Amino acid sequence: MIVVIVAVTGFLLLVGGGAAVLFWSDDDDDRPSTTSVASRPTYSGLPTPPTYSPPSFPTSEPTTSAPTYSPPPQNYGAIAVGRNGAIGKAWDYDSAAAARRRALNECPTSGCKVLTTFVNGCGAVAFNSRTNKYWGGHGSTKAAAQRNAINNAGGGRWITWVCTTR
């Protein structure tokens, strides 16, 4: 089977806008084809262009959780004192009750009493020799707690202090 391609004119290609005429023949001889061009299948030399679909967008805004407030940790402390001046201290406990229990357990003699409990700050104990009594105080700093204890005692001197980790 010989396929004959006939007649492409240079003038039509150059001047006539690139029109070309192709003739297909299934015959072995040089006779013109009796089949019309319209009844023959055509094949495009170009691939089918791809179709474009725009990307899909979310139907709603993404939800982001609002930042939540976390309060600072509460660190409790306490100081217990015995009649003889024995001292028990506790700091950085999750509750005031736990800090008081620990201060009493740390006091080496029986009959100790918790004189001050504080949170995220400092505690101090002062002794007034005129009244022969111990007094507790608290404050945001060591110095503030000592002043508060001495004022509560009506004078005297501080004997111990402790601060929590803030």
UniProtKB/TrEMBL annotation:
Xref: Pfam families? DUF4189 (PF13827)
Question: Which InterPro entries would you find in this protein's record?
Answer: DUF4189
Q: Which domain of life is it from?
A: Bacteria
User: Which residues lie within the region annotated Disordered?
Assistant: 25-74
- Residue spans with biased composition (Pro residues)? 47-57
Q: Which residues form the DUF4189 domain?
A: 76-153
Residue ranges, compositional bias (Low complexity): 58-68
Protein's recorded name? DUF4189 domain-containing protein
Give the originating organism. Answer: Actinomadura geliboluensis
